[in-house]
Amino acid sequence: MKPPRRQRVAIVGSGMAGLVAGYLLANDKEGRFEVEVLEMQDCLSLDSASYTLPRPRQPPFPPPCCSDAVSVPTNGTGTANGSTVKPKSASTIKTQTQTQTAETDEQDEGEERVDLPMRAFAAGYYDNLRKLYTHLGVTFEEPRFVYSLSTLASTGDSPTTKKRTQTDSQTYFIHSSNNHILPPIRPQGLSLLRWVIEAAYLFFWYTYFTFACFLIAPRRSEKSSIATKCGLITARTQGETLRSFLTRIHVPTYYTTRYFLPLMASVTTCTHDELLNFPARDIVTYARRTFRRPHYTVRGGVRQAEGKLSKGLKVKFGAKVTSVKTLEDGSGRVKVRWRWTHSSSAKGRSDDGRVGADSATSSSATAIAEREEHEEYEEEVYDKAIIAVTPDVVGSIFEPLANEMADIPTTSVQSVVHQDFARIGASSAHLRGDPRFQSRTIMATSSSSSSSRSNPTLPVSGPVSAAIHMFTDLHTGRTESVHEHRSSMLITTYPIDNAIDEAKILHRAKFTRVLRSARSREVVNGIFNLGLKSVNKEGEGEDGWKSGDGNVYLVGGWCWDGMVMLEGCIVSAIRVADALGVDVPWAR
Predict the structure, then answer these.
(1) What's the DSSP call for residue 184?
(2) Which of 41, 49, 153, 508 could form a disulfide with 83 if both were Cys (CB 3.0 to 4.6 A apart)?
(3) CA of 271: how far to CAs of 411, 482, 503, in Å?
(4) Is 522 part of a structural domain of the chain?
(5) Do residues 175 and 187 touch, judged by C-beta distance below 8 A?
(6) DSSP state of 502
(7) SS3 for 53?
(8) Minimal CA–CA distance to 209: which of 248, 170, 178, 171?
(9) What percentage of the chain's residues is helix, strand, coil (to nearest 5)?
């Protein structure tokens, strides 16, 4: 008996959500799916913004006076999602099958990978992500974070021209994750009396807010104003905003602006005002599930997971999807159209869809030029399509959601790898001088070996605590975080000025952060049937497109009713697998 035809599935995007969806379908027990990933870059996007550092040959955390200059590469560099990456040769930008093996788990002895953005995750909130990593045999470790909180004094009105140094900042508290260092480390220059008063104040309001998260539920809906062509109308939205919730439970502004918002803004990488527009349910749920739970990072970076998830997947690199459309012939099939982002992609393709070693060189110059002209755009018909990109991109390539995606806010975030210790010098030296900062061992968890299965939590060598310095501009409501990496490098995320010495910058990366609001929650929940019926901008009820209609599915960190994190990527991919009857091995 002839086996049934395998269904062709296109996955647009190769971030965590796209790779997990591809992994599940490609490993379907019944072998029903032929998966093809379409990626606009010349590499998979999950790890594309990250950076490989040389391992330090000197003790970690060099003195603040370190003046070694590192020049920014200026020749032959490309960009991927706004990140500076080393370009591949023309022959590598093509359709190919990923063949990463367990060898990708082993880093070169002289290198260390830095995840950009930082991929720390907490137990309790990231349960599906932890189960996935355990299933893949990825090793993760449990660092102890120590946060120094400081304010910055503005020297001008334009954030692009402000120049600040350590002398312009004032550290007012040093906090440890899960309060693993008690009593807290006293900041340098802060009097004992002021420190005691600050600690007592923080303890009271932190305890109050924690109890409030467990005892006071955010309102299910509240009135809000929606802009229309005819003016403003009042409508009920799905859930109370964080701003409203904090006001309702009477949390003081001092605690909010100096403690709560800087710490949460470092997680959400957005301004304080944007964070206050988040649904209160997101923050309350996150606070509940991460309370007193450890944080983890992947040893060797997310490329460990990327290599395992993409193993054997067929990937079209350099394919920028321009439209996804369900055919109107009643077949339910989906047409995907893309543009080759590199001319070599089209020139090097052979008839079977793979790169032919001699296909380009064997043609005349005229034939190649004609081929480039006719093959700049390409389209194929698939049985199903899974879109795994940010909402702004979804709106531009998938017409049924063009209007809805405009209601989901996004922002651009930058991370900088550098060796400019000017801003954190005194605070860093103060922390390293405290014996409690280095008094514990990092714990690593893995399921990749028999020994780790019998004893999943093993001590490993290395610095105990990861120092993260947070600087807040109270005028603009922005917080930047500076992570002291154990390789004696700094990673500044969401910088609020141009004060980093350009000569000491090794790498810049830009990525799109999807934000949340009461309206965006309404839109997302409507698409995935997760909540109340959505309303349109005229305040009327609407029954719009749902994920899965026309054999088109959405996955991503934003495709669930929660904060936009990697956990949402896993949850949404599992949702698609369930809809297609595919087994999820780590959920058994």
Answers:
(1) P
(2) 49
(3) 10, 16, 28
(4) yes
(5) no
(6) G
(7) strand
(8) 248
(9) 30, 25, 40
- What is the tally of structural domains in the chain? 1
Q: Which residues pair with 457 in a beta bridge?
A: 445
Q: Which residues on adjacent β-strands are paired with residue 37?
A: 11, 315
pLDDT over threshold 50, residue 375: yes
Does 357 fall in a domain? yes
Query: Are 442 and 120 in contact, with CB atoms under 8 Å apart?
Result: no
The residue count of the chain comes to: 588
Percent of the chain with pLDDT over 70: 71
Alpha helices in 362-494, H assignment, sequence order: 365-374, 391-397, 402-405, 425-432, 450-454
- The CATH number of residue 558's host domain is 3.50.50.60
Q: Rounded CA gap, 560 and 125, in Å?
A: 13
| 151, 258 contact by CB (below 8 A) | yes
Name, in order, each residue with C-beta under 8 angstroms of 571's C-beta and a sequence gap of 6 or more. Answer: 128, 559, 560, 562
Name the H helices within 27-168.
127-136
Residue 240, phi then psi, degrees to nearest 5: -80, 145
Helices (H), 277-364: 280-290, 303-310, 343-347
Q: Give the Å distances, CA to CA, from 240 to 212, 356, 398, 489, 494.
A: 15, 57, 30, 40, 27
In what helix (H) or strand (E) does residue 204 lie, and over which residues does it extend? Answer: helix 192-215
Which residues partner with 478 through β-bridges? 473
Q: Do the domain assignments include residue 367?
A: yes
Which among 572, 573, 556 is positioned nearest to 564, based on CA atoms? Answer: 556
Long-range residue pairs from 431-435, CB within 8 A, at least 24 positions apart, any chain: 431/146, 431/148, 431/174, 431/185, 431/465, 431/467, 432/61, 434/185
For residue 427, the tally of other CB atoms under 10 A from its CB is: 25
β-pairing verdict for 384-387 and 7-12: parallel
230 located within any domain: no
Query: Do 41 and 417 form a contact (C-beta atoms < 8 A)?
Result: no
Q: Which of 124, 116, 452, 464 is nearest to 301 (CA)?
A: 116
Round the average pLDDT of the chain to a whole number and report it. Answer: 80
Please name the amino acid found at residue 61.
F
d(CA 390, CA 491): 24
pTM: 0.81
Q: How far apart are CA 157 and CA 163, in angstroms?
A: 11
Residue 541 per-residue DSSP state: B
